[in-house]
Amino acid sequence: MQDDKHAAFMEMFLSCQHDIRAFVAAGLYGWDHVDDIMQEMAVILWKKFDDYDDSHSFGAWARGIARNLLLQHYEKQGKQSRLLSDDALHAIEQAFYRQEEALMDRDQEQQALHFCLDQLSERMREMIQLRYHQDMGIHQIAQQTGGKYEAVKKALARVRKQLIGCCERHLQRGEALS
Amino acid sequence: MSVDKHNVYMDLISGHFDGTLNTEEREALNQALVDDEACADLFAKAAALHNRLHVQAKDNQAAIPEVIEFPTAARNQVPKMLAVAAALLVCVVGLVLMQLPSQQDLRVHIVRGQIELDGQTYQQGLRLEAGQDIQTAANSVAQIHYPDGSVVTLDAKSQAHVADQQSLSLLAGSITCEINKRSKANRFVVKTSTAEINVIGTAFTVSNRNQTTNVHVVHGVVEVATEHQTQAIALKASDSLRVSDSFLATTADQSSASQVLWSVDFEQDTFGDTLISGALVANTLAPDGNTSDFCGAAEVQVNGDGSLLQFTLKNSTDTYFNAADDAYITFRYWAESCGWLGVWMAAVPEQHYLHYHREFIPLTNRWVTARIRLSDCVRGQSKDSNETMSPGTPVHWFMIQAGNLPGARVFIDDIKVQVPANK
């Protein structure tokens, strides 16, 4: 019985952990506290799993708990850490729910991202490398590439826009073919 | 949504993730998220991308690199031709020519992309001289061919200093080495910032990122020397090792001359005074199905009450180590999924945030010996106490903690606090 419950929990948790982590990371700057909050949330989800109503989305339930943990984190860390208002967090939560409803295969999404990263120009790829693999901020990237701060900011916005568009097109094409 | 509006939203959202928004811009973003569903939808997509890119980068850094397969024809033909040419040369000109600097025979093959030698763009077919640095760009792969047929493949974004035909320093990135059988005197050596890998003839991969070296042996045996051990660790086929300045984890058997200050072996010890929390599993089937190897271990199930494994040093001995000692804690673990593990220590029991070290769990689903240098434990944030641990402070309490997905299991056994024997 306990094994069944555990298996059900793991299946649900693993299927939406990327979305939940994305939601948690959206409320914070940097990655220092993201995994701590995820860890704490995972324990709470497991403890409260008996209360979960499986006629509703597990992801939405988990994001609700993640939102409370984010609000607690803001409270602990002080005003300056608060990046999003309660209303904005709620709006984002709803947007994640809409996105979840149009859920694609996660492996396909990963493949789409790989494909789209390959389509980027060398310069754009370098931006992503420096920002995510080297964890550099805008100032550091500007220094490293010899670019200007504003130009780097714009370039990162452009490359994100490009990747989002490319992944959507790639997934739609895949859906049309299947 | 109009293109202009989309761009304005994207600039704000991107700025949010890069931490560049000023107060006004932040308010504008918060307002747009509430007022316009399209902005919130775009934000959710950008957040998912932001997370995926980060996870991908983290996975790349943590993963043991896979062996890269290259066309064997290209790899085998060139060295064979070189070997034939070299043999002919020896016959014709005589032994004197054997004194020629052998480094001249190193050749570089660009598998794809761009590479640089000493900062200059490299053209296909040129020689690699001893003392040169070789560097691959993003999405680029290069091979160094040695006269004996050995091949070292540099993965993308890697940099190596080729000292001579016997040694190479991996400065960044990862390499795959396929080294033909050599004599002990000619053994091949790969150096990184945290390890020295000695090879007689084998295939293995090495990566060196963020001051952490990963070694994985495909076949043969390599010996890895690190600052953590007085004796080199022998890695056999399918063994792995991860080492940084303060942490070492390996699937290989280890032995080193050391003085054991304190230890717990769950097969033999009584735990009443030692184990504070966590569950003891005795006479259980090992996670690898091997009963003989596993008669007792402490198990952590990360699902609430049993999520911590805590120990105190035994009070009856005078063997407390102190914060200035070059002491290590070693233990064996088996983790069933990725997560983290850490060591916390304190001069006073329960005030465990004083000094700690936390490490991403490498090498899951195998028995791994982990080793953490206690002097590298950093001072944490303690809300409970102003206590400090200056050098010389005796450590009375420590805790091993593991975090994982709920329900996933971590087993820990053979815990020892040691100092090198020559201390």
Supply the key terms:
heterodimer; A: 178 residues; mainly alpha; Rna Polymerase Sigma Factor, Chain: A; Arc Repressor Mutant, subunit A; 2 domains; 78% helix; B: 423 residues; alpha+beta; Jelly Rolls; 22-stranded mixed beta sheet; 6-stranded antiparallel beta sheet
Describe the structure in your own words:
The complex is a heterodimer of chains A (178) and B (423). With 178 residues, chain A is an all-alpha fold. Helices cover 78% and strands 0% of the residues of chain A. Chain A has 8 helices and no strands. Chain A has helices spanning 2-26, 34-47, 58-77, 86-101, 106-119, 122-133, 138-145, 149-177. In chain A, helix 5 (106-119) crosses helix 8 (149-177). The model of chain A has no long low-confidence stretch (mean pLDDT 84). In chain B, the strands form 2 sheets. Chain B has a 22-stranded mixed beta sheet that branches. Chain B has a 6-stranded antiparallel beta sheet with strand order 18-21-27-23-24-26, with no helix packed on it. The longest helix of chain B is centred in the N-terminal third of the chain and has 26 residues, at 37-62. Chain B is of the alpha+beta class and 423 residues long. Chain B is built from 4 helices and 28 strands. At the A-B interface, helix 1, helix 2, helix 4, helix 5 and helix 6 of A face helix 1, helix 2 and helix 3 of B.
